[in-house]
Design brief:
The chain has 21 helices and 13 strands. It is an alpha+beta fold. Helix 6 crosses helix 7 and helix 12 crosses helix 13. The chain is globular.
Length: 547
């Protein structure tokens, strides 16, 4: 580790990093002078200062992780005094990191932790992170030592993979190392979760089975205003269906004139769902007339109760059943209905129940079931092996056995794989056809805006070249790019600019000239210099003036 920084010492490397990221000299000036008043800076200089201190923060965190690994080298387990090993409570060997990392002296952790201003436990975690990165995640470690990535992101990967074997950790490292710092945190975390499941599928299947034992509903305490909290820990499809059904009923209530907020309507919807017949009637009335079997004879009133005109007439009461005696009733002083007059009412209740059962029996439950589409992305290897990772939209990556369980009670329609090799024909309209929108989502599951975390089918599809009515074939897959709504707005109505020189490669320019290049590997900050501006002008379409 002494040669980790090459011919230069750590202080020299840090100085070089500062020089590299502080082209304007503002950061060095602020560190060596009496101070710099940020309010005196221009807009572009202020943003440069923000970026400079971001890099300085990275240098500090990364350097501490490097030093933690060096400290562990200097305090190996065999450096412990043999006397300590024989003393109760004395120094002992510990392995803070995962399998494949060396043991160190336990007492050495405390001094390191105090030097970085952390508790002993936090200091041990930092040493564990440094060792895991160096021994188990070498590609990510190499980028960390070159200050290409933030150390905190690297620590997240180290802790998420600590339970894996060294071989499994290396597989994750090969998959994730190049994405850190180029994808948003949320997006690369999803990729990390998926890769961990892929390399450790058997263990995750076991964990999923154990997690089923922790499901349930729990009531919180009421507050002074009569509100009570209901907690639910449910399988994902159950929770989604429950919410969807409550949302469906809430929408029905809105159409019927309910003026409350969406939350109020959700609460009332759950209340209605606790009364099955009322819930059924609401759905039936909203879905009619296609809800019921068309062959049901609605004019058939043969099961309707008919009024009695004589004792026992029209009833199914056994003729030899004795009339109740007055002593059969409590002596409350109230008038007690006796004799035949009591039984037709009971008979009517029974007949009404029979009629209700018959009517409900005519309902096709499939027509009551809301239609839902589950988008599952799964690799061929998972299908061939029978176990692996499946990516479920709006849920995330999970072990494939869980998805199989979800689909056991469902009518499954498997759609053919969409061939993305050849684009659909362009269209003249500004509106994007449904088939083209589906293909764009499969090509770009999330926004292509720099470092964006917007993912899913709810992102906007925007024309890379602003749409001009009257020009044919403007809406094409090669001329579209997904963006979150706010990102879309700052491009359309703000001062951000975007170009797509080739399909899948996007170049953005921020209002004060900073240029970003985005492709399937992530986001690259090109800065504001001449190189960045050359890239920006080179990305201009032939018909567009290079502004």
């Amino acid at each position: 580790m002494e040669g980790l920084f090459g011919q230069a010492g750590l202080s020299e490397v840090t100085s070089r990093v500062v020089d590299m990221i502080d082209g304007s000299g503002l950061m060095r000036h602020s560190l060596t002078s009496d101070g710099l008043d940020p309010s005196t800076l221009g807009d572009a200089e202020l943003l440069d200062q923000v970026n400079s201190f971001r890099w300085l923060e990275r240098a500090g965190i990364n350097s501490n992780l490097i030093l933690a690994a060096i400290w562990a080298d200097r305090c190996p387990a065999d450096s412990i005094d043999p006397y300590q090993l024989g003393v109760p409570g004395g120094d002992r060997p510990i392995r803070p990191g995962g399998d494949g990392t060396p043991e160190i002296a336990r007492f050495a952790v405390t001094e390191f932790a105090a030097s970085v201003g952390k508790s002993t436990g936090s200091g041990e975690l930092m040493i564990a992170d440094g060792l895991d990165l160096r021994y188990r995640l070498p590609r990510l470690w190499a980028r960390l030592t070159r200050y290409e990535v933030d150390g905190r992101d690297c620590q997240t990967v180290a802790r998420q993979t600590r339970h894996l074997t060294p071989e499994q950790a290396l597989a994750v490292d090969a998959s994730i190392a190049d994405l850190i710092g180029r994808w948003s945190f949320g997006r690369w975390m999803k990729h990390l979760e998926a890769k961990i499941i892929e390399v450790d599928a058997d263990n995750y299947k076991r964990l999923a089975e154990e997690a089923k034992k922790e499901i349930g509903l729990y009531l919180g305490q009421s507050n002074d205003h009569g509100i009570k909290t209901l907690y639910g820990r449910l399988p994902a499809p159950v929770a989604i269906r429950l919410y969807a059904q409550a949302d469906r009923v809430a929408d029905i209530l809105a159409r019927r004139g309910h003026t409350g907020s969406k939350g109020e309507r959700h609460a009332e919807a759950l209340d209605i769902m606790t009364r099955p017949l009322e819930h059924l009637r609401l759905l039936a009335e909203d879905t009619a007339p296609t809800l019921f079997d068309p062959d049901l004879d609605t004019d058939d009133d043969s099961l309707l109760p008919k009024p009695s005109t004589a004792a026992g007439a029209g009833t199914d009461v056994a003729q030899d059943e004795p009339e109740p005696e007055p002593d059969d009733f409590d002596d409350t002083g109230d008038e007690v209905p006796v004799g035949p007059s009591r039984f037709p009412r009971i008979d009517q209740d029974r007949r009404l129940a029979e009629l209700a059962i018959k009517a409900i029996g005519q309902i096709d439950p499939v027509k009551l079931r809301p239609k839902a589409t589950l988008y599952v992305h799964i690799a061929r290897e998972t299908l061939e092996n029978g176990l692996g990772v499946a990516r479920v939209e709006d849920v995330g990556p999970m072990v494939s056995s869980l998805v199989a369980d979800w689909l056991r009670c469902c009518d499954v329609t498997v759609k053919p794989v969409i061939d993305l090799a050849a684009d659909l024909a362009p269209v003249d309209s500004h509106e994007i056809p449904k088939a083209m929108r589906e293909r764009m989502y499969l090509k770009y599951p999330g926004s292509v805006f720099p470092f964006s975390g917007s993912v899913g089918r709810r992102v906007d599809l925007d024309h890379s070249i602003p749409f001009t009515p009257g020009i044919p074939a403007q809406t094409a897959e090669s001329k579209l790019g997904p963006a979150g709504r706010r990102e879309h707005n700052v491009i359309t109505h703000g001062l951000w600019r975007r170009r797509q020189p080739t399909p899948g490669t996007f170049v953005f320019r921020a209002p004060h000239g900073r240029v970003f290049l985005v492709n399937h590997t992530g986001t690259y900050d090109l800065g504001r210099g001449s190189f960045a501006q050359t890239i920006w002008h080179a990305a201009a379409p032939p018909s567009q003036t290079a502004d």
